[in-house]
Amino acid sequence: LPMFFTYSGLNTRLDMVNSATLLVIALGILIVSILAKFGACYAAARLSGQDNRTALGIGALMNSRGLMELIIINIGLQKGIIGP
Q: What one-character-per-residue DSSP string does 4-31 give?
């Protein structure tokens, strides 16, 4: 698993975000997606009867998921289905 993350990190093309506008857009999307996933998981945990501390933990830990998406993206890049 650490080798997979190393491989993915080495293949990341940050040079494609070559303007301030693209950087702001990328950061905006990142922030909104983190807050939305955290908020939805927190709200679902609270609605199901979890205490505040547990709900905060669930919201934070659900944001750390994403291995499957990274695998799919890497396969898509290797097969030429999606571009960088």
A: HHHHHHHT--GGG--SHHHHHHHHHHHH
